[in-house]
Design brief:
By secondary structure, the protein is an alpha/beta fold. Helix content is 56%, strand content 17%. It is extended and about 105 Å long.
Length: 581
């Protein structure tokens, strides 16, 4: 794109991102009042030095007369400390100001040394020179640190491929806008059939196309062609997000989105190929549709999904409550919220075994009961929880409860078993996710090596750069990483090789078809071989038949999970298995 987005933002957007970086690092800017305060302290201390150094008076300390001139060195040192603080706290301005203040002293030192021949001020000269040396070291070292801070800024907030703000930066920006109660539109953008384009043209051309698209949209945003205030970022592989402010009407919003759509009309010439890419847009409005950041994004996702499923000529659609709330969905959302309020979210544990029937551990599975205390199928309530932004709350409840149980069992029976917990994309991308994990481990006393975070393959595809940072931190903590539902997405070997995973979980759909044809069996065998080449263990989900078990043993699978050897059970029944293992 030629230049980095961090230097390309308009001043207002840049200030928002700078505040985000400060929040990440815990750093705070010094108030300007302190700048003046340090100067005043320095001038006062210097004035006292001049007074006491020329005074013949004394002061009584513990019945001993002490000449006032003795205190000249004390206040001279204090004055130097104040300018060091000034230089260290206020960067270039503080450094230059400190140099000016210290240089003014040399006028007096020159008069004393060379005109009056008073060598008593010689220590002051040396002290001033040492102070200038100190503040120079502080300033130039600080300038070097600021280079690394800029790199940290880019890594924390900028999408590496396109140079646009990343998912985290956009989320923080949106939070800031909502906090100010400023009207805005959240627009999710998905490139049409981009996965097919990638497969046909190759990832290199695909990445170059993404860069060109980002460049065009960046230009629309920065040149103000839309007439509104826009903030564009990239959230995943082929998905972007646009925040629109200062619009006068909904027609104004549509016109703005249309400019981003029209920016793709001109063909892209990449490596001699004429490339045409279109996009679909789904958006929600604050505060009309929601006053919550996560819900705003979720509702924009619903609108985007609707326009992808039912494309029209405009490819632009606003969220409508009817998209989300069919009669069944309305009831389910209400049931979920009621279950969350009344502690009816719970978990079951499905055992995992090796082929000698030795217990490996358990996967914690979310369960829910309705207002009549009847179990609701996860296949029903999980999709609704995802679409309404409640899934991360459910994740956290299951995670905390299961970790507390497993921590007790490991301590009670000295069991070396693993607890697997599913984490949604939304939950993994929360800014405080790592802090949540640390807090749960501490409160449950569950050893990190006995925890396995399960992520879906779609996270690798859609949120690779953001997910990789979080997963790497989890791995450093000693936590295991499992890639769930493997084989259902399109992740490449290069992605898998970079993910710090320990385990591949083969999706049940492949196990079901495994013994129906030789090609299906070979596909499962290839996944197992690929996992082993990458140094990963492999577990097959949904093993329900003895023939499946025998086939998996022959082709080298490491572990199995399914109804054949264990249905999801209550914690009480799980304890019996642990006790008798």
């Amino acid at each position: 794109m030629g230049k980095n987005k961090s230097t390309n933002l308009d001043p207002e957007n840049r200030r928002v991102l700078e505040r985000t970086l400060q929040n990440l690092s815990g750093s705070l800017l010094m108030p300007k009042s302190l700048f003046v305060f340090f100067i005043i302290l320095y001038l006062v201390a210097t004035r006292i030095v001049i007074y006491v150094s020329s005074s013949s008076g004394t002061i009584n300390i513990m019945n001993n007369p002490v000449p006032l001139s003795v205190f000249a060195g004390v206040f001279s040192s204090l004055a130097n400390i104040f300018v060091i603080f000034l230089s260290g706290a206020f960067g270039k301005l503080g450094y230059i100001t400190s140099l000016v203040l210290l240089s003014l002293n040399f006028i007096g030192y020159y008069q004393n040394l060379f005109i009056r021949r008073n060598f008593a001020s010689l220590p002051g000269v040396v002290g001033n020179l040492l102070t200038i040396t100190a503040i120079s070291i502080i300033y130039f070292y600080g300038a070097k640190i600021s280079v690394y801070q800029r790199k940290l800024y880019d890594q924390a907030l900028i999408d590496i491929l396109t140079g646009l703000p990343n998912r985290f930066a956009v989320s923080e920006y949106l939070s800031d806008v909502i906090k100010k109660k400023e009207k805005c539109a959240v627009v999710l953008i998905n490139l049409d059939n981009f996965k097919d384009f990638n497969e046909a043209m190759g990832f290199d051309i695909g990445n170059r196309a993404l860069k060109e698209i980002a460049r065009r949209w960046d230009n629309v945003s920065e040149q103000g062609r839309s007439g509104t205030k826009d903030f564009i970022g990239r959230t995943s592989g082929d998905e972007f997000i646009l925040i629109i402010r200062n619009f006068k009407s909904e027609n104004n919003i549509y016109d703005t989105i249309k400019k981003y759509s029209d920016a793709l009309n001109e063909k892209m010439l990449i490596d001699g190929y004429d490339c045409f890419i279109t996009a679909s847009f789904g958006y929600s409005l604050f505060p009309e549709d929601s006053d919550d950041r996560d819900s705003m994004i979720s509702y924009a996702e619903v609108a985007l999904r609707e326009v992808k499923q039912n494309p029209n000529e405009r490819h632009i659609l606003r969220f409508d409550v009817g998209m989300l709330k069919g009669d069944r969905v309305i009831k389910l959302e209400s049931t979920i919220r009621s279950a969350l309020s009344n502690n009816r979210i719970y978990y079951s544990l499905q055992p995992q075994y090796d082929f000698e029937h030795k217990l490996r551990g358990f996967e914690a599975l979310a369960r829910m009961r309705d207002d009549d205390n009847r179990a609701v199928s996860p296949n029903e309530f999980i999709p609704v929880a995802e679409s309404t932004g409640l899934v991360d709350t459910i994740d956290l409840i299951v995670f905390k409860s299961a970790a507390m149980f497993m921590g007790e069992q490991i301590k009670k029976y000295d069991a070396d078993i693993i607890l697997g917990v599913n984490i949604s994309v939304r939950h993994l991308m929360k800014t405080n996710f790592l802090e949540e994990v640390k807090e749960i481990l501490q409160s449950s006393q569950l050893p990190p090596k006995n925890l396995e975070i399960e992520i879906t393959e779609s996270i690798i595809i859609d949120s690779f750069e953001n997910a990789l940072v979080t997963l790497s931190e989890l791995k450093k903590m000693g936590i295991r990483i499992a890639i769930d539902d493997f084989g259902t997405g399109y992740s490449s070997l290069s992605y898998l090789n970079n993910i710090p995973a320990n385990l591949l979980k083969i999706d049940k759909s492949f196990i079901d078809r495994m013994n129906e044809s030789e090609s299906s069996k070979q596909y499962v065998e290839a996944i197992i071989s690929m996992g082993h080449i990458l140094g990963l263990e492999v577990i097959s989900e949904g093993v329900e038949e003895k023939e499946q078990l025998e086939t998996l043993l022959k082709i080298g699978c490491d572990y199995v999970q399914g109804f054949l050897w264990g249905r999801p059970i209550s914690p009480k029944d799980a304890e019996e298995i642990i006790k008798n293992m």
